[in-house]
């Protein structure tokens, strides 16, 4: 078999005693076709390709196809005692390319800024620019904002959406657009610790979120400047406590159970007289520390799985009673639908405030005033 000097040295002296070998010019090598002699050239082309992207860390991989893969698999199968993984062309190529890239001032990492995947057969590479993840909390000061992009069914613009192509302006856009500009990125995606309704405000300490910044060209950014840019661009939302995190923060936010405190303006079907007030107080006592069984509310069943969930109410306090209006402060487990806790949603939520009081009631206005938990304490240690 005809090998270049590098490949012959790599597969080992033992193999030479098993098969007839011949040293040839690199480009005539049956195994690498001379690719191992072009490492510095490849590294240079990768660095030039990424010249518009700030990055400090990288990870290299390579893909085997065609004749190179077939021949190496044959050698492994026939002479596996001598051809181990550390002598494979993939291992050798990855090591040498990594060493060459480090000469350009970059360093290897298991959580890299960029990943380079080189196809040895085609002698071409693909680059993946890894996202930047920012953790923080947002305050939503106004109603009528969705958390994430909510596109209109028309997709292009119609009278119903005022020719904007979207049903509502979103927190995601208000936070994301300044970040896209600052990081010179392709997009920004918001991942929240739960979500508030379009017509609800998010006040108090704010809702934990992670912003995924897609294909950023800039990475060395002062997050204080980012906060300032977002907060000066709009008076509808505010962000605070921005920190760099990794992708695991998204999984944490999606899976964690947060305790939340809500303030709800509840409107009853009739005035709260002494009898209704007594029943209301009784209902509040019954709901404290109660487990609530909620079937997916009718208002969201078109976009959520029809499931029955068990969630807990920790406490309810009356802040105001006037005519047929009650202002309540409700402390509950995340995932509990507060509007349905009050109305009962035609029996889909049990028990409910309305069912215990015996008077129909609905939430007219809702604010989230506290979300406990998040990554704040961990990141500040």
Helix-strand topology string: EHHEHEHHEEEEEEHEEHEHEHEEEHEHEH
Instruction: Compute the number of helices.
Output: 12
What is the number of independent domains?
3
Helical percentage: 25-40%
Which residue ranges are poorly predicted, with pLDDT under 50 across at least 5 consecutive positions?
Answer: none
Question: Main sheet?
Answer: 10 strands, mixed
The CATH topology annotation of the largest domain reads as VC0802-like
Q: Please give the number of β-strands.
A: 18
Class from secondary-structure proportions: alpha+beta
Any idea of the CATH class of the largest domain?
Alpha Beta
Radius of gyration: 30 Å
The proportion of strand residues reads 25-35%
Distance between the termini: 60 Å
Mean pLDDT: 90
Give the overall shape.
Answer: elongated
Shape-level CATH architecture of the largest domain: 2-Layer Sandwich
Structure description:
By secondary structure, the chain is α+β, with helices and mostly antiparallel strands. It folds into 3 domains: 2-129, VC0802-like; 132-256, Alpha-Beta Plaits, CATH 3.30.70; 259-371, Alpha-Beta Plaits (2-Layer Sandwich), CATH 3.30.70.3190. 29% of the residues lie in helices and 31% in strands. The protein has helices spanning 5-11, 13-16, 39-49, 66-78, 89-102, 171-183, 223-233, 248-255, 274-287, 338-343, 353-357, 376-379, and strands at 2-3, 22-23, 57-63, 107-108, 114-119, 124-129, 132-140, 150-151, 166-168, 187-192, 201-214, 237-245, 259-268, 291-295, 308-322, 325-333, 349-350, 361-371. The strands form 4 sheets. Strands 7, 10, 11, 12, 13, 14, 15, 16, 17 and 18 form a 10-stranded mixed β-sheet that branches. It has a 4-stranded mixed β-sheet with strand order 4-3-5-6. It is elongated, with a radius of gyration of 30 Å.
């Amino acid at each position: 078999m005809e090998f270049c000097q590098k490949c012959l040295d790599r597969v080992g002296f033992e193999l030479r005693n098993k098969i007839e070998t011949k040293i040839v010019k690199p480009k005539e090598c049956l195994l690498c076709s001379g690719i191992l002699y072009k490492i510095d050239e490849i590294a240079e082309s990768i660095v030039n390709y990424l010249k518009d992207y700030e990055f400090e860390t990288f990870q290299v991989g390579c893909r085997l196809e065609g004749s190179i893969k077939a021949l190496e698999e044959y050698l492994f199968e026939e002479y596996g005692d001598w051809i181990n993984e550390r002598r494979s062309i993939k291992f050798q190529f990855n090591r040498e390319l990594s060493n060459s890239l480090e000469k350009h001032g970059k360093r290897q990492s298991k959580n890299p800024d960029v990943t380079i995947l080189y196809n040895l057969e085609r002698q071409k590479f693909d680059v993946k620019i890894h996202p930047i993840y920012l953790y923080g909390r947002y305050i939503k000061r106004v109603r009528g904002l969705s958390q994430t992009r909510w596109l209109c069914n028309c997709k292009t613009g119609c009278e119903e959406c005022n020719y904007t192509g979207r049903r509502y302006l979103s927190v995601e856009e208000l936070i994301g657009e300044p970040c896209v500009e600052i990081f010179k990125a392709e997009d920004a995606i918001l991942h929240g610790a739960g979500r508030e309704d379009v017509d609800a405000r998010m006040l108090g300490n704010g809702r934990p979120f992670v912003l995924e910044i897609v294909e950023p060209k800039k990475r060395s950014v002062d997050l204080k400047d980012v906060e300032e840019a977002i907060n000066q661009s709009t008076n509808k939302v505010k962000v605070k406590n921005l920190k760099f995190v990794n992708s695991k923060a998204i999984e944490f936010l999606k899976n964690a159970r947060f305790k939340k405190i809500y303030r709800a303006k509840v409107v009853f079907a009739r005035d709260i007289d002494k009898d209704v007030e007594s029943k209301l107080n009784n209902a509040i006592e019954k709901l404290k520390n109660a487990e609530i069984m909620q079937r997916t509310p009718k208002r969201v069943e078109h976009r959520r799985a029809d499931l029955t969930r068990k969630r807990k109410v920790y406490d309810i306090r009356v802040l105001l009673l006037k005519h047929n209006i009650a202002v309540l402060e409700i402390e509950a487990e995340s995932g509990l639908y507060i509007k349905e806790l009050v109305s009962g949603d035609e029996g889909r939520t049990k028990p409910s405030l309305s069912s215990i009081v015996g008077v129909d009631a609905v939430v007219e206005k809702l604010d989230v005033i506290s979300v406990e938990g998040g990554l704040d304490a961990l990141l500040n240690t």
